[in-house]
Amino acid sequence: MTYLQKSPWIVHYNASSCNGCDIEILAALTPLFDVERFGIVNTGNPKHADILLCTGSVNEQNKVPLKNVYDQIPEPKVVVAIGICAATGGIFRECYNVSGGIDKIIPVDVWVPGCAARPESIIDGVVKALGILEQKRAKMLEKSGSENIKAGEAV
Question: Among candidates 28, 98, 6, 23, which has minimal Cα distance to 61?
Fold first, then answer.
């Protein structure tokens, strides 16, 4: 795991799951698993978040809200799809109103398998997301630095 200068904040979105994965996310926050030891803070506001944890399959009613939550998270951001429903639609994929997994609406960076995903797997996925977040942050800083140089040359 790389060193982050800022504690990453996560926001959780339930896209229409059976709540099995949601319970496991909460279990990962308990003292038994203690995901906060990595400096992770759970927030309810997407505008403060760095990582979006999604559970459940995408249906017709939550396409727009999911996209809205994703758009509110500032760059750089990482999306973690937790559970088989978030990956493919799971047991609900044949339902008339289910479009499939989270990746049908927003880009996904990390996939956490399972039904329901175990807290250990969720923590592993979040740690992988931290590495991706750091890479995205470095690319963003590199890009903004080169843009500043170009802007300085133009002046």
Answer: 98
Edge-first strand order for the sheet with 78-82 is 41-42, 9-14, 51-55, 78-82, 110-112
Cβ atoms of 110 and 79 within 8 Å: the answer is yes
> What crossing angle do the helices spanning 119-154 and 20-29 adopt, rounded to 10°?
80
Break the chain into its structural domains and give their ranges.
9-154
State the DSSP code for 117.
P
* Per-residue model confidence as pLDDT tens digits over 101-143: 899 999 999 999 999 899 999 999 998 999 999 999 999 888 8
Rounded to 5 degrees, what are φ and ψ at 80? -115, 120
Q: Specify whether the CB–CB gap between 101 and 57 falls below 8 A.
A: yes
pTM: predicted TM-score of the whole model, two decimal places? 0.85
Beta bridge partners, 59, equal 98
Distance, CA of 50 to CA of 10 (rounded, Å): 6
Q: Quickly name the fold that domain 9-154 has.
A: Rossmann fold (3.40.50)
